[in-house]
């Protein structure tokens, strides 16, 4: 395909129909999805502007379209209305995976951004830090931030370390000598490289993952990943996998409606979603549901590290309450909350919630003798089959593990892996999980029982590789040349790449930063508005109205209970 014939909207539509709706790996979807997807329409610029060889624009537009199609199925089955015409502007859709970098708090007053190198004290007035290990943020020494990076091993391979919200275990594992004189990531990386170069890749992988339980992976090529026992074990999964847990006691039906509120305009109103989540992908699941009326309660803890800057975008439509699961009374309170919920989302590493009695089997058991089931969605990094399923991970780890990082490096003429900037995989994985939840709600209404949705960062990575792919050579060459063939290196971590690529887009990709894609959204929880991107799906007839029941907020603001009035701004 040539530059003259290439079209992002056309390719997005093709991906939606050929690689999602009609993908045999998604054959558990309701049969109506094929007809519902015909009502998804794409507009936008013909050529890409984000200087990455992978087709991020097309992937996010297609996955968002799949969400719209599944929501259409729910609208028709639950409310008996015709499928709604939904428009997706692919320029707008690309802002979705940039959205954590774009908000402005109090846009007519203090104009506080999520760039915490500028006046972090103003930001923390609204969103106090939860960085209990002093591992994140602009105040953290460059040496500690360099703990997340790609380094070359003794046997000539590359290994991706990750600080995992606490840099100390990885530093202890490597016995790396501190360098507090280092002022930037390149200079701070030298001590890590010295230590990593003393290890063979597989031995280091065992040390980091199995002994120290930190995130890390050998940087595999695509061919190596799919040839591995782990790649083979997960190859049969699409974006997600839905499991029906049959139980004749659990009758078919929807969630409990709220009179006058649970309507086609807010189709998920009354749905109670309980979140155990951190970072990006798992909170996106709840946020996607909240956008159409669901009430979401996110459980956090003052003793568990969290990336507070993400709350600005991830927290819309959610209450946020502290519980400490080391306390028996708090565990009892959480069990009670679960039993009032319709959906539970678990985004912690495999085994973390099981330790406290809140794993998949524990939650299913709470509903075993009830007349209604539960929808339980869980996310991990590597996928739920194979030898690495128990490991922790993040988007950078998934990109390095599956070969995406290697292909980005090669696209710039390098013989080394480079992490693609922007959390596209995080965002698309989260949307995929929310699609699985919508599918489960539709099928639970028809068949009863409970449902388990398995989601993984590697699942999206697999789909990106096998179904979406990279730009044709001519298109990539045109795109790369537009940015003067800029080259990033394996030791450029996200602290380096995100600001660099965001600046590139601001200078030469302004079509995606159209002010029409932004809105000033009221946030009663913090007392000032926030300027952020509008919802990506646009309903042509305006019958369905995306938005959020409550504003975003800091951790621990609310009491850990479901309020009687689901429009309550702060639960006290």
TrEMBL record:
The keyword Lyase does not apply. Keywords: Transferase. PANTHER family: CAIB/BAIF FAMILY ENZYME (AFU_ORTHOLOGUE AFUA_1G05360)-RELATED, CAIB_BAIF FAMILY PROTEIN. Pfam families: CoA_transf_3. InterPro entries: CoA-trans_III_biosynth/detox (IPR052985), CoA-Trfase_fam_III (IPR003673), CoA-Trfase_III_dom_1_sf (IPR023606). This is CoA-transferase family III domain-containing protein. Belongs to the CoA-transferase III family. GO terms for molecular function: transferase activity. It comes from Crucibulum laeve.
């Amino acid at each position: 395909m040539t530059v003259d014939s290439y079209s992002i909207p056309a390719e997005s539509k093709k991906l939606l129909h050929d690689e999602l709706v009609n993908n045999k790996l998604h054959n558990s979807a309701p049969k109506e999805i094929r007809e519902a997807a015909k009502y998804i329409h794409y507009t936008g610029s013909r050529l890409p502007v984000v200087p990455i060889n992978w087709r991020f624009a097309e992937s996010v537009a297609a996955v968002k379209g799949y969400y719209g199609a599944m929501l259409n199925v729910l609208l028709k089955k639950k409310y008996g209305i015709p499928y709604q015409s939904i428009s997706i502007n692919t320029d707008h859709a690309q802002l979705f995976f940039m959205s954590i970098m774009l908000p402005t708090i109090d846009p007519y007053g203090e104009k506080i951004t999520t760039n915490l190198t500028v006046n972090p004290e103003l930001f923390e007035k609204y969103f106090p830090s939860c960085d209990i290990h002093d591992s994140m943020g602009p105040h953290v020494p460059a040496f500690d931030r360099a703990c997340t990076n790609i380094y070359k091993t003794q046997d000539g391979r590359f290994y991706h370390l990750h600080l995992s919200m606490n840099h100390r275990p990885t530093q202890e594992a490597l016995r790396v000598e501190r360098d507090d004189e280092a002022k930037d990531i390149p200079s701070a990386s030298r001590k890590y490289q010295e230590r990593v170069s003393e290890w063979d890749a597989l031995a280091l992988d065992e040390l980091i993952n199995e002994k120290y339980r930190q995130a890390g992976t050998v940087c595999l090529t695509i061919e190596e990943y799919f040839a591995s026992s782990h790649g083979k074990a997960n190859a049969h999964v699409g974006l997600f996998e839905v499991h029906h847990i049959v139980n004749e006691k659990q009758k078919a039906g929807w969630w409990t409606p709220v009179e006058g509120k649970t309507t086609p305009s807010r189709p998920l109103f009354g749905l109670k979603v309980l979140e155990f989540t951190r970072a990006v992908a798992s909170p996106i699941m709840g946020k996607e549901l909240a956008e159409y009326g669901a009430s979401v309660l996110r459980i956090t803890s003052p003793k568990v590290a969290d990336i507070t800057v993400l709350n600005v975008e991830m927290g819309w439509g959610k209450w946020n309450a502290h519980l400490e699961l080391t306390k028996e009374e708090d565990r009892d309170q959480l069990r009670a909350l679960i039993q009032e919920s319709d959906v539970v989302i678990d985004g912690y590493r495999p085994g973390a919630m099981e330790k406290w009695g809140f794993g998949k089997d524990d939650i299913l058991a709470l509903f075993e003798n009830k007349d209604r089931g539960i929808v339980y969605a869980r996310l991990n990094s590597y996928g739920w089959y194979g030898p690495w399923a128990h490991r922790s991970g993040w988007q950078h780890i998934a990109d390095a593990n599956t070969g995406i990082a290697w292909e980005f490096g090669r696209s710039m003429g390098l013989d080394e892996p480079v992490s693609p900037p922007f959390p596209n995989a995080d965002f698309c994985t989260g949307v995929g999980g929310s699609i699985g939840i919508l599918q489960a709600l539709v099928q639970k209404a028809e068949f009863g029982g409970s449902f388990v949705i398995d989601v993984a960062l590697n699942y999206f990575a697999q789909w990106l590789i096998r179904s979406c792919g990279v730009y044709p050579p001519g298109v990539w060459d045109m795109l790369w040349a537009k940015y003067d063939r800029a080259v990033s290196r394996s030791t450029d971590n996200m602290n380096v790449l995100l600001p660099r690529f965001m600046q590139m887009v601001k200078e030469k990709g302004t079509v995606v930063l159209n002010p029409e894609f932004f809105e000033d959204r009221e946030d009663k929880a913090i007392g000032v508005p926030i300027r952020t991107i509008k919802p990506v799906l646009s309903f042509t007839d305006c019958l369905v109205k995306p938005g959020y029941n409550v504003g975003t907020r800091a951790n621990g603001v609310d009491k850990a209970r479901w309020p009687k009035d689901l429009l309550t701004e702060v639960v006290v």
